[in-house]
Sequence to fold (289 residues):
Amino acid sequence: MRVTVEQIDRTREEELIVRCYDPSAAWVSSVTEAASDHRTICGWQEDTMHRLRLTEIFYFEVVDDRSFLYTQAAVFEAKEKLYEFERLCAGSALFRCSKSMILNAEKIDYVRPSLSGRFEAVLSNGEKVVVSRKYVADLKRMLGV
Amino acid sequence: MLMKNITLWVRRYVTVYGIIMLCTFFMCLLFNPSSELPVVSFFGRIMVFTLIALLSLAVYYSKDELTVKAWWVRTVLHLLLLEAVLLPLAHSWGFWHGGTDSLVYAGFILLAKALWHLVDYSLNAKTAAQINERIRKNRLEKRN
Fold:
């Protein structure tokens, strides 16, 4: 495999493009994970700002036009809108799971169907979130199902 | 995306059509086993029934994500809507006559709706099993 590293000046945005035969291959997820580990977002708790790595985030949710970031055991308010956060986490393990939520696929312990035609994802911290059927295809693609 | 949606709705149409046909078969078998059906018009009417049943799914449309409670409320509303539209239509087409018949027919509509949700649930259970298997494999790969 050919590896190319190009140095760019600070005026341009850093970018990682992976050209591969199988997007679900283990090495591809390792590369994208390593890259997303460097991406951060600001979360606020009262007046204190915290810099959070994308890999720390369990999910991002919009409630009454306010955005929140959920980690293992803490909740932070975020300034970003849903579409801005979605753009920020492109290529990472975070995916849109419902109309108001972006979920980290790496934090899912297991999923189960619910009678209402949707799915319930149980996260590694025990929390349960809803995954709409519309977005399950994205999760399947991400996991390589 | 458009192709996916078309496939989804065709699959739903076929599923609902199958469920209605199954219910009709059992209803005829139980209450009118000697009946002779005018095949073309009968199948055509079942197709219209299916179309109405699918159109009535608009009850579930919402801009926001439905809560479990809201889903149950809409499910009851959907059932009432199906009964209110399909019962008179079936009567006008001569599918049932009299009080007992109407109760049985209403029961079959309820049964068809329950079957639809059951099929839906079992398909989702299959998808969930595939996802869980992949999560398990990914975890094993990472550990090694």
In short: Helices of chain A lie at 26-37, 82-88, 133-143. The two ends of chain A are 25 Å apart (CA to CA).
